[in-house]
Design a protein that fits this description.
This protein is α/β, with parallel strands linked by helices. The protein has 20 helices and 30 strands. The chain binds ligand 6R9. It catalyses: acetate + ATP + CoA = acetyl-CoA + AMP + diphosphate.
Amino acid sequence: MSDKVYDVPSQWAQKAYVDDAHYQSMYAASVNDPNAFWGEHGKRIDWFTPYTKVKNTSYDPGHVSIKWFEDGVTNVAYNCVDRHLETRGDQVAIIWEGDSPDESRKITYRELSAEVNKLANVLRNRGVEKGDRVTIYLPMIPEAAFAMLACARLGAIHSIVFGGFSPDSLGGRIADCGSKVVITADEGLRGGRKVPLKANVDAAVNQIEGGVDHVIVVRRTGGKVDMTPGRDVYYDEAAAMVTDECPAEPMNAEDPLFILYTSGSTGKPKGVLHTTGGYLVYASMTHQYVFDYHPGDIYWCTADVGWVTGHSYIVYGPLANGATTLMFEGIPNYPSVSRFWDVIDKHQVSIFYTAPTAIRSLMQAGEEPVKRTSRASLRLLGSVGEPINPEAWEWYYHVVGEGRCPIVDTWWQTETGGILITPLPGATKLKPGSATRPFFGVQPEVVDAAGAVQEGACEGNLVIADSWPGQMRTVYGDHERFEQTYFSTYPGKYFTGDGCRRDADGFYWITGRVDDVINVSGHRMGTAEVESALVAHPKVSEAAVVGFPHDIKGQGIYAYVTLMDGVEPTEELRKELVAWVRREIGPIASPDLIQFAPGLPKTRSGKIMRRILRKIAEDQFESLGDTSTLADPGVVEDLISNRQNKR
Ligand code: 6R9
C-alpha cells in the first residue's frame, strides 16, 4: 500500500470533460434518479426508434432481470460506422500496427464501412441471420474488427475466442453456443512466431457432432492450410463476389450483441451475454469520460479483442465515439523492449491503455529502452486487468509518462461490460494502487462475509447494489447459473468476486479475487478448469490448483498433483503435465510449478482445504490457520517440505 497522493493538475481540471465538482454533481444525479440520468445519456447513440423506457431491472432472488432502453431500436454497427460517414468519412478509424514494425495500415471510416459491409454480405450469403451465433478466432488484424461489426450489422451474435486457446477450448465454446460459422485466419503472427489458427479450428470442429457449416479463412501469412471443400472458403475470394453495401438490421436494445466466455470459480467457462443498447451507451460513455477522449486524440488499447477489454475499448467504445483506435498485432518485447514506446512515437499516440503485467515486465528492462523514445504525444495513461502494485504505478507515471500524464486505473470485469471504478483524469486525485471512485450510476458497497454493509473506511467483499446499462444480462443458455453465480451470495446484490478496501476518502482499493479464480497476466483462469485438465491425464489421480504471487504475471499457477499408484514422480512427467495442460486449455494455463503430493489436505468430509494449499504456495507456513479439521494432519508437513521453488 502506498500513501502517496497526486492532485489533479489544474490544466486537467480546466480542460477535461469533468472536474471534481462536476463529478460530484453528476454522480449524485446518476444514483438519485437513474431514469433521468440515463434517459439523457442514452441519447449519445443514434436510435432508429427512440426509447420511452429507460431502466427496468431487478436483482430480486429468483427474478433477476436486467433491461435498459427496452423499447428502443438501433444497430451497433450503424453507430460505430455509418453515423460518422458524413462528418468524418475520411478520418482514420483504425490504425493497424503489425507484428513486424515494417507493417502498418490505416483504415478510414469510409473504408471501414465498405469492409464491414462486405464481410456482412459474405456471412449473409452463407445464411447468417439475426440471432445466429458466429465464432471468431482471429489474430489482431483489422478483419477481427470488421467481423465483429459485420455480425452486429446483421444482428448475429459474435463469440470471440482468444487465439491462444487450444482446439479443445475452442471446440467447447463453438459447441456451447451452437455456432455454425467460424471466422479464422490461416495463421497468426506474434513476436515473429506463427500460430496455427486454421489447423486449430479443424481440430476443434472435428470434435463437434455435426461440425460447422462454414469456415471463413482470412489470409494472414499465406501459409499452407487444409481447406475442406464445401465448408471452407478464403475470405478474399468470397469478398470478391459481394458488394460493399449491406443494410443494418434494426435491433431492439435488448437483442444480444455478443457472447464472451469467461472463467468462474466452478464448472466450465460461462458464456457472458451482452446486449445492444445499454452496452453501447455504457462503453462509449466510459470511453469518452474515463480517457477524456477528444476528437484528434490517437487512442491505443493494447488488449486483444479476444478479451472484453478489446471488445469495449478497442472496438465498440472508441468507434461509437468516432475515435481513431490503434490495433496492435504484436507483443511488447518484439523486436525489442522499446516496441510500445516506438509505436507511440510512430503513430503519435496520445492515450495509452495497457495492463500491469506488461508494465512490470518492461520495468525489468530498465529505463533506457523507454528513455530512448520521445513519447511527447502522450497525455493520458491507463491500466486494467489486475491490481497495479504501487512500484509499477510509479514507474509507469514517472518513467513512461514523465510525471505529465494522469493514470486511470480502471476496475471492471467481463460481466460489467465497461469500467465501473476509475479515476476521471480532470476530477480525481490519484493514489497509486487505488482504482479510486465509482463511475456515474455505479453503486459499490463493501460487505462482510455475512453480507452486512460496511460503512466508512473498511475492508470486505465488493458488491454493486444496483444495475448499470453495461451489465451482462445472462449466462448464455443458463439464466439460473447467472442468478446463482452473481446474485445468490449476497441476495439482492451483484457479487463481483473481488475483495476490496475503502479508505477514509471513499476511495476503493481492489485486493483481488476472493473466489477460486486466479488472474495470470491479467487473464482469468478458474482453478477448476486447470484441475480438470490435469486429472484428465491418465497418470494423475487428483489435482488441486492455487495461485501464488508472481513478480511479472501477478499470479502464477501452482498445481499440487497426486499420481496414480505406482507412477514415478519424475522431472520428465512434470514437463509432460505442463505440455498436457497447454494442449488441453492453451498456453495461458501452463502451470508454473507442479508439486507431486502423495496426499492433499482434506477435511473429514473429503473437501480439499485450498486455504492451506494457498498458504503453502505463498510460503506462509506459519499462518496455515486451523488444521485440526484435517482428516490426516500429516500431509501438511510433507507438502511444506516439498514446496516447489520459483524458477
Ligand atoms: C476488464 C477485465 C476481471 C477481474 C476482476 C479483478 C481484476 C480488472 C482491475 C482488476 C484490480 C483493476 N481486475 N481490472 N483488479 N484493479 N484495475 O480485466 O475483465 O478478464 O473479466 O477480469 O480482473 O479481479 O474481477 P476480466
